Inverse folding.
């Protein structure tokens, strides 16, 4: 199987040759890869070097916490990706951003309102949890829509509070 | 001398106190909220009593209920830990009125130091230098504060009168932003302490936060256990502490001078039990009294490791009416200790608190490593209380050794199920400035970012890509086995989304 | 000075050595058998190489393979840990021949002390008293040994010439039982060391096993780090060790005298690196040289806690050609340390080893507690290696404090999935004789039984009955939900049997 | 539900009244009983006292490890037990003892043979595991039967090696 894996700006062509061989951009590595029994922890021996990472999936991305650094990886089947590129789906459409509660908490304030234009970094919701007030900011410029919470609301983890489109 | 102690707290500090009680042969009683039925302090205690629903106001802040439980089960003393009821003079008084020993200072000392205005007046009268500000002026309205602001000079700090731990605190750089920041501070102070009063204080720039541990018994003995360096903070929350301070290190003269001032400040309020005098120290080693914390501090273990004094044990002995086990001459700092506070928060996403079930823990251990933890594998981190899950503390002969050991220990630590700030500490410990002890209280906010730190490091991006691909490949192979042939056109992303939910929900 | 170390071992000691290497900034290489792919030493190492199938003869005992790996990956030194290749002079020599530093003594010292007969002759010549026996006589046949037995006098011990750790050792109380015991000892010695030769030794009754830790550098400096008390043993396996010994405690004269003898014994074989001189001490404080262990000991941490010396770090420094960091005058014993060896074995069933998956661990922690462990939650305990899973070590100002702390720590420790001897230690620590330091090497076998200890304690039988019933009730309620009405006549026992399999198999 | 629970010589009549009340021999206790999430560890608060035990089932018996002491408990439904007593099933028949390997290992010696009479405490098999030789003894007097292993055999955990009847 051949994959194209993207981390930040960098794209890697990765082929899983067999259980103990993987090539990255044509270079073949000797690997011994195993999950530490049911713990989302993975141990990799690569040409003898021992590395361990915590790997979890989030919104179709793989989060790899390796030696204190977090890598966000997109893994795509090579043939699918090429097909998408051919069909012109390769360009990222301007998607809606769903502001989800990162943890259960109490809404302290919603300083924006329906249809309001916001800048990147502008505070959308102030949420109190674990005795701290947390400012949840917009990851990009856009327009606020579907505001579903108000001051004083209790929200569940992952509940969508509003969107920016 | 009492034989049974009620610990009016939760989390790591309840466990910490319980340990010293047990080693002294005392019976231990704990209280818990509905969210904490399976918490470690409940599992380890001799007796445990339910207080009420999870919110602190309905549980850990219910002083009357706690005193009633103590009386009913025959506890003779109450240890309040830190936070919750620890610095409430009325609670301390209520304990005494109920015939219970309070393992902490006299109510009058808590009151004197708890009202920051009184505290400043008192220590100032005793000849201790304080930071300029409005604390002596009583509870002022916004318009008064807005007038006084420019006189003190910017930048300045708005701080909660009843505060502590950075809650209800805001930094003001100019008059324009002052009104909205006053609002924010009052709102947070009201929410945290039920008291929205605030005061202004000159911001000492390039300041270090250095504090002295005090012990005072009922026989008139007051000693200090040297200093702790607490400058590494974020939003006024301490993150990493050391003992001794690299800023003082071998300046034994300064240490003894500041220690003597700390003892004088404590004596000024007729202090009893353990307490901490916080100083701001500027780059010229001028020091200002900041406040006194009339309780056990989160960071007390670094002092324990360099002095070999068990501070909780001394607290108990003092409350039992025994004299201190040590004189000032017995106290010598030996080696170096560092503590990292391990919080359930996401260092890659503005330190947002993280809740959920801890699926797996692998704890660092071995020579020179101490872990004070309140969690275990399978435990739920709830949103009701603060995000501190453990304190990792190491000891080394010299600072450099302690740093190397802390790096080693952080590298061993695995917590799966909630996000933690372990990567933050790992990156912080790699900073040149940290290694050379060159930092002030603004270092973390102004001079450090985990993203930037990541860029500097030897990048393992290719390895990460490979590992992500291997995991994705495994998942695809596995799901291929369970998906009906007709349904195999389902996109990878949907499958991953589902796996994602499984993993997070489990 | 070397920068990359290969650790030729597994389990807790491989992790222990790895920690010191990492703190010194050295690169770490480990080797592993097929059973240990996910072992902690492999997970924590910088590099890890497969040796072969699980049995030690095909993996951890393959000296040639290990040396080849070291050469190939650029390691410049090998630390053998304890057991496996640690006391094999030929392996140490092969390392040197391959241009690798051996972190341990010179091959000649290992050989001199490894052959017990030579060892006794050598130290005896240096003026050190030894226990009467046949060690100087070469490898004797059974008929010679049967002749010599009565001359030495009963009781006596049959011991393996190549031995250690109680393997191939038998106690003989009279001539009649001697032939079969000789057979058993030879069989076990052959199986353990590939050498069935044995010798006889007078059994010193009411003996204490007290040993001295030695450090010797390449510059002619030899120091001792005080003693360890190791009398608490079962089948000649140490179970609990202390430093200092309650038998010596404040007899500083005896300590320095024995320490000087230990140093003399080490000098007699031109010793280098860390080693241990074991003595038998009778009730009149007469001491006899027993043997020298030319390696790091399992129980080295108790010495580390009372001296603040990191013995593994010193071992590495010595092997790098550096002088000792300490002189004899720098060494002062501070406080008291106790170690409990936590084994996967069933203390309620003749200490039979226990294998399986560790489902859950809750580790003791907090002030004064050190845990050197080689396992984690989810790990498999295989039948291929010894049953030691961790070492729990505590420090206290005084022995009584250390005992209280150890009780507290044992009470916190939870291991689910395999049986452990934690309850054994808990009961042992409650014994009057232990508390008063009154025990010899036979105490555990002759004066202590966990069943008897259980009877003496305040019995919680009623509580246990209630808890068992509540669990049984829950299981019945749950299975009632899933069983078809027609099948509900199935007996409880069958259901329990099934649950049992589920739990053990999971 | 009413149970008769036996530990050693002692029998307890235990009634589960409701979620928070249990009576033992007529005495009612206030209890709060819960499993620590999937760990075979159980926490009991009884009249305020906090106790934790490791509880597992073994051969129809419950093993309760509580504060360093191991209790073997038999829990029987009261009505079933009374019925059994009435029908005369109350007396324990002399059962066969199955010697199972307590761990995987190598059989070093089988010092008994088929049909041989053995005393309580007599060694039946010597098994090597974890570098130790373990003598497995007969828990009672009887006669050896169905010897299924010999010197040099490798055995699996729980494999029956021989019986004593």
């Amino acid at each position: 199987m051949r994959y194209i894996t993207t981390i930040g700006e960098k794209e890697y062509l990765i082929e899983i040759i067999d259980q103990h061989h993987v090539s990255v951009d044509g270079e073949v590595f000797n690997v011994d890869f195993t999950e530490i029994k049911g713990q989302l922890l993975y141990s990799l021996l690569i040409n003898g070097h021992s590395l361990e990472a915590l790997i979890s999936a989030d919104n179709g991305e793989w989060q790899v916490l390796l030696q204190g650094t977090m890598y966000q990886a997109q893994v795509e089947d090579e043939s699918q990706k090429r097909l998408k590129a051919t069909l012109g789906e390769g360009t990222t459409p301007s998607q809606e951003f769903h502001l989800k509660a990162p943890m259960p908490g109490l809404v302290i304030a919603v300083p924006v309102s329906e249809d309001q234009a916001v800048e990147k970094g502008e505070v959308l919701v102030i949420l109190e949890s674990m005795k701290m007030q947390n400012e949840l900011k917009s990851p990009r410029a856009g327009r606020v829509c579907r505001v579903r919470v108000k001051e004083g609301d209790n929200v569940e983890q992952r509940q969508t509070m509003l969107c920016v489109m | 001398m009492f034989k049974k102690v009620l610990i009016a707290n939760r989390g790591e500090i309840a466990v910490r106190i319980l340990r010293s009680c047990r080693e002294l042969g005392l019976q231990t009683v704990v209280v818990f909220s509905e969210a904490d039925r399976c918490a470690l302090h409940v599992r380890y205690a001799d007796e445990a009593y339910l207080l009420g629903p999870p919110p602190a106001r309905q549980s850990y802040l219910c002083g009357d209920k706690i005193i009633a439980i103590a009386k009913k089960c025959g506890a003779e003393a109450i240890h309040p830990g830190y936070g919750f009821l620890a610095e409430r003079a009325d609670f301390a008084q209520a304990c005494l009125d109920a015939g219970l020993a309070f393992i902490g200072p006299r109510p009058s000392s808590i009151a004197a130091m708890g009202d920051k205005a009184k505290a400043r007046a008192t220590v100032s009268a005793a000849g201790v230098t304080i930071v300029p500000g409005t604390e002596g002026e009583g509870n002022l309205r916004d318009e008064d504060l807005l007038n006084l602001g420019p006189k003190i000079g910017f930048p300045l700090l708005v701080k909660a009168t009843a505060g502590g731990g950075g809650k209800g605190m805001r930094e003001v750089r100019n008059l324009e932003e002052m009104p909205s920041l006053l609002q924010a501070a009052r709102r947070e102070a009201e929410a945290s302490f039920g008291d929205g009063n605030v005061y202004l204080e000159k911001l000492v720039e390039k300041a270090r936060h250095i504090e002295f541990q005090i012990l005072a018994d009922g026989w008139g003995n007051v000693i200090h256990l040297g200093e702790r360096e607490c400058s590494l903070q974020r939003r006024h929350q301490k993150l990493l502490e050391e003992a001794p301070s690299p800023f003082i290190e071998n300046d034994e003269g300064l240490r003894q001078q500041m220690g003597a001032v700390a003892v004088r400040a404590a004596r000024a309020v007729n202090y009893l039990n353990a307490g901490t005098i916080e100083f701001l120290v500027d780059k010229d080693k001028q020091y200002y009294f900041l406040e006194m914390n009339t309780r056990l501090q989160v960071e007390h273990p670094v002092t324990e490791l360099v002095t070999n004094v068990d501070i909780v044990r001394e607290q108990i002995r003092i409350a039992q009416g025994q004299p201190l086990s040590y004189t000032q001459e017995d106290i010598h700092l030996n080696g170096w200790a560092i503590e990292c506070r391990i919080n359930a928060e996401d260092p890659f996403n503005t330190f947002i608190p993280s809740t959920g079930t801890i699926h797996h823990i692998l704890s660092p251990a071995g020579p020179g490593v101490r872990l004070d933890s309140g969690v275990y594998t399978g435990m739920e981190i709830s949103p009701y209380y603060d995000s501190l899950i453990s304190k990792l503390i190491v000891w080394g002969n010299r600072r450099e050794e302690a740093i190397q050991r802390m790096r080693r220990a952080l590298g061993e630590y695995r917590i799966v199920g909630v996000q933690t700030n372990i990567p933050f500490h790992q990156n912080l410990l790699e900073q040149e400035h940290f290694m050379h002890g060159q930092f002030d209280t603004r270092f973390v906010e102004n001079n450090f970012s985990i993203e930037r730190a990541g860029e500097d490091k030897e990048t393992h991006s290719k390895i990460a890509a490979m590992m992500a691909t291997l995991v994705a490949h495994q998942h695809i192979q596995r799901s291929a086995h369970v998906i009906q042939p007709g349904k195999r056109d389902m996109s990878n992303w949907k499958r991953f989304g589902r796996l994602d939910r499984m993993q997070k929900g489990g």
Notes: The first strand of chain B starts at residue 4 and ends at 7. Confidence is low (pLDDT under 50) at residues 483-506 of chain B. The first helix of chain B runs from residue 11 to 23. Chain B touches chain C at residues 15-16, 19-20, 22-25, 44, 301, 304, 308, 310, 334-335, 360-363, 365-373, 376-378, 397, 401, 404-405, 408, 411-412 (CB under 8 Å).
